[in-house]
Amino acid sequence: MNNVNLIGRLTKDPELRETEEGRSICTFSLAVDDTFSKEDRADFIRVTVFGNQADNCKNYLRKGFLAGVNGRIRSDVYTDADGIKRHPISVTAERVQFLQWPDRQQTKSNPDRGRER
């Protein structure tokens, strides 16, 4: 079984690209707090999303937004420019939940619009 659930904040705006077949691919990085550490530290996890969810991530997520990701861990292997073998870990998302939305723009005619009461 390969299943991971993460909640974290985006470290930068998502990046969207398309395959030659027209399939959307969105990538972003999540900073996930390490709650078991005595120090303030986070793990930085690269996330890849495909299809309609990729488009939605690009349209609605921004740097600093809180998001939940359910997916599977993927490990790659490559040799960097210095000849060192690297093993980066990433997550291929099956589901992304938007846990924070941008504030709704308030209009002059109704300054209380979008505020909680």
Helical run tally: 1
Strand content: over 45%
Would you identify the CATH H-level superfamily?
Nucleic acid-binding proteins
Number of strands: 8
How does the overall form come out from the CA principal axes? globular
> How many distinct domains?
1
Spell out the helices and strands N to C.
Answer: EEEEHEEEE
Strand order of the largest sheet: 1-3-4-8-5
| The CATH architecture | Beta Barrel
CATH class, named Mainly Beta
Portion of residues in helices? Answer: under 10%
Question: If you had to describe this structure to a student in words, what would you say it looks like?
Answer:
By secondary structure, the protein is mainly β. It has one domain: Beta Barrel (OB fold (Dihydrolipoamide Acetyltransferase, E2P)). It is built from one helix and eight strands. It has one helix at residues 51-60, and strands spanning 4-10, 15-18, 24-33, 42-50, 66-75, 78-79, 85-86, 89-98. It has a five-stranded mixed barrel with strand order 1-3-4-8-5. Mean pLDDT is 87; it is low at 105-117.
Topology (elements, then pairings):
Elements: E1 4-10, E2 15-18, E3 24-33, E4 42-50, H1 51-60, E5 66-75, E6 78-79, E7 85-86, E8 89-98
Parallel strand pairs: 4-8
Antiparallel strand pairs: 1-3, 1-5, 2-3, 3-4, 5-8, 6-7
Task: Give short descriptive properties of this protein.
5-stranded mixed barrel; 8 strands; 9% helix; single chain; 117 residues
